[in-house]
Every structure is written in structure tokens, then in C-alpha cells.
Design goal:
Blueprint (H helix, E strand, L loop, with lengths): L11 E14 L2 E14 L14 H8 L6
Antiparallel strand pairs: 1-2
Length: 69
């Protein structure tokens, strides 16, 4: 006997699709985050990991609308 997980759209508490963040600098446009997509469902934990400078903080700040416009 095998268990089959049934996906329920109401279980999704965060749905991020194609998030991109560009930052204007004196030297041109910096593409800080490109096309990030993920979902977090109820009772799940998401960990964003990566090397320094890969966009973890910018992604989080964008999701919380804490970046300047």
C-alpha cells in the first residue's frame, strides 16, 4: 500500500513565481535576483541557503516589501 499526497491549494501560504529584483547603480543595472519561484505550504519550513552575495537577503526583503521603490 502506498500513500498518495493530495495537494490542496488552500495549504499554500506563500507562492512566489518568477521574482526578479533589479537595482539601479551608478554603473548600470544590477540584476540581484532572477526568476526565483517557490511555494511554502502550511506546516513547512523553507530555508534559503547559498554563498555570500547570491541574493538571499534581497529575496527576503522583496517578499516583505522592504526594498526602496
Amino acid at each position: 500500500m502506498s500513500a498518495v499526497a493530495v495537494e490542496d491549494a488552500t495549504d499554500v501560504v506563500l507562492d512566489v513565481q518568477d521574482l526578479s529584483v533589479d537595482i539601479a547603480t551608478p554603473h548600470g543595472l544590477l540584476r540581484a535576483v532572477r526568476n526565483v519561484s517557490f511555494q511554502v505550504r502550511r506546516a513547512e519550513t523553507l530555508c534559503i541557503v547559498g554563498e555570500s552575495g547570491c541574493g538571499k537577503s534581497i529575496t527576503s526583503l522583496a517578499l516583505m516589501s522592504l526594498l526602496p521603490t
